[in-house]
Specification:
Number of helices: 5
Helix content: 40-55%
CATH architecture of the largest domain: 2-Layer Sandwich
Shape: elongated
Strand content: 15-25%
Structural class: alpha+beta
Length: about 190
C-alpha cells in the first residue's frame, strides 16, 4: 500500500517594495539579523512564471500567497556591476591575448604585439560593452516590470516563530507594504 505524501507547511513573512533600493536595504538588514541568503526570495520574471504556471501575474498581489509562484534571488546593483565588468573584461582579455599571440608567433616585434593587443583589446571591450548594456537593460526591465505590477515582492522564510516579529519589523522599516505572515504547503 502506497503511503500518501506528507504535506509540510512553510512559514514566511511577505512584503512588497516600491523600489529596488528599499528592497536591497531590507535584504541587507535581514541578513545582518541572522537571515540566510537562501531564506530570501523574490518573484521570478514573467518568462519563468509563464513556463511554470502557463500564465503571468498581472498584479504582484496575486502572487504574494501563491505557493506555486516561481521564485528567484534578488541580484543587487553591485553584483550587476560585477557582471557588466566581466562582460567587458573577458572579451577585452581574450582579444588582446589572442592578438599578441598571433603577432609573437608570426615573428612580430614587441611594439607590433603591443599595438595589436591594444587594438584588439579595444575591439573586445567594445563588444563586451554591448553585452554589458544588454545585461543592464534586462535587469532594469525586470525591476520596472515588477514595479509596474505593484512592486517588488519579497518572501522571507521563517525557520522559527521567534523570527516573525523581526522579519515584519525589518520589512516595514524599509518601506514594504502589505507586510504579513502566511503559511504555504511544501510537498515532500
Amino acid at each position: 500500500m502506497k503511503q500518501a505524501s506528507k504535506i509540510e507547511r512553510v512559514h514566511e513573512a511577505v512584503g512588497v517594495f516600491n523600489d529596488a533600493e528599499s528592497l536591497q536595504a531590507a535584504l541587507d538588514d535581514l541578513q545582518t539579523h541572522g537571515f540566510m541568503r537562501h531564506e530570501l526570495s523574490i518573484l521570478a520574471g514573467d518568462k519563468a512564471v509563464k513556463e511554470k504556471l502557463g500564465h503571468i501575474y498581472s498584479r504582484v498581489e496575486d502572487a504574494e500567497d501563491d505557493a506555486a509562484a516561481p521564485r528567484t534571488i534578488f541580484v543587487p546593483n553591485e553584483t550587476m556591476g560585477e557582471a557588466e565588468g566581466a562582460a567587458i573584461g573577458l572579451p577585452l582579455y581574450i582579444a588582446a591575448v589572442t592578438a599578441t599571440g598571433i603577432v609573437v608567433a608570426s615573428g612580430g616585434t614587441i611594439l607590433s604585439a603591443i599595438i595589436a593587443a591594444t587594438a584588439a583589446g579595444a575591439a573586445g571591450a567594445a563588444i563586451g560593452g554591448i553585452f554589458a548594456n544588454i545585461i543592464a537593460e534586462h535587469h532594469a526591465d525586470y525591476i520596472q516590470d515588477q514595479i509596474d505590477k505593484g512592486g517588488l515582492l519579497l518572501w522571507v522564510h521563517l525557520r522559527s516563530s521567534d523570527l516573525e516579529k523581526t522579519a515584519k519589523e525589518i520589512l516595514s522599516k524599509h518601506g514594504a507594504h502589505d507586510v504579513h505572515l502566511h503559511e504555504i504547503p511544501l510537498y515532500g
